[in-house]
Amino acid sequence: MSTPPAAPGLRPLTLTRWDAVRGAAADGDVAAVEEPLEVRLGGRSLAVLMRTPGHDRELALGFLITEGILTGVDDVLDLVACAEGDAGKGNVLDAVLAPGVGVDWDRLQRHTFASSSCGLCGKATIEAVRTRCAPLRAPLRPDPAVLVQLPQRLREAQASFAATGAVHASGLFSRSGELDVLREDVGRHNALDKVVGWAAASGRLPLDDRILLVSGRVSFELMQKALAAGIPCVAGISAPTSLAVDFARESGQTLVGFLRGDRLNVYAGTLDR
User: What is this structure's pTM?
Assistant: First the structure.
């Protein structure tokens, strides 16, 4: 029996493999870690995200920005790891707000728990989310010859998926197809928030000349989060939802789905040929 070594966000485990020819045998494997991350604002609990540990500061910062709670990295002095309760595992981050930055807690429309697969949990109305971000003023028309190269580049960088098959990925690319950053997580929304948090911490927002590729389907909330970061083009390996298509057409974003091999579907916006 061989047990793969531990790595950030991965946990070695033992299991029994069975097939009709060889029968049962003990073996080793790795699983994607899923643990809660509590996000606080000024010591007050805001949300609990079920995520894969790693790049937690990016996740918290990206979440605060894409949910419209903060406007950017300048609103935060620091993200502090707390030491009580489950925070012994590093699972609580408190955002220390910059002087003069306030939060309207009565306006926040989210429950204090968000699962790793959560979409619009806790939002009062879809319309409240739909109207939070202004449409893009300058659309991006990506080159289809570039788009069809992106899935392979994304897959080659998905180390955790290769080990577990259990995580989503979001990759940010330039118009010419260079990979800026890739983040993986058990939650598709978390993976995107980590990308946005990385961009915010790097002083790169808004991402108005970048292409986002996600490893699965494209949901309404992924489009909304991408718009909050200024991303004009979102592509998915799988299909978009109907609400994602409607949102992209209203927001001026280019939306591509079923990006596989040398084929793709354009649901909103236009390509460069």
Answer: 0.89
Whether 82 is catalytic is: no
Query: Could you give phi then psi for residue 118, rounded to 5 degrees?
Result: -65, 140
* Domains, the chain, ordered by start: 1-32 (no CATH), 35-130 (3.10.20.10), 144-268 (3.40.140.10)
Of the candidates 82, 118, 133, 233, the residue annotated as catalytic is 118
The enclosing H or E element of 164 equals helix 159-164
Span 257-268, mean pLDDT? 96
Cβ(233)–Cβ(140) below 8 Å: yes
DSSP characters over 91-133: -EEEEEEPTT----TTT----SEE-TT-SSTT-S-HHHHHTSS
172 φ, ψ to 5°?
A: -105, 125
Q: pLDDT tens digit string along 162-203?
A: 989 889 999 999 999 999 999 999 999 999 999 999 999 999
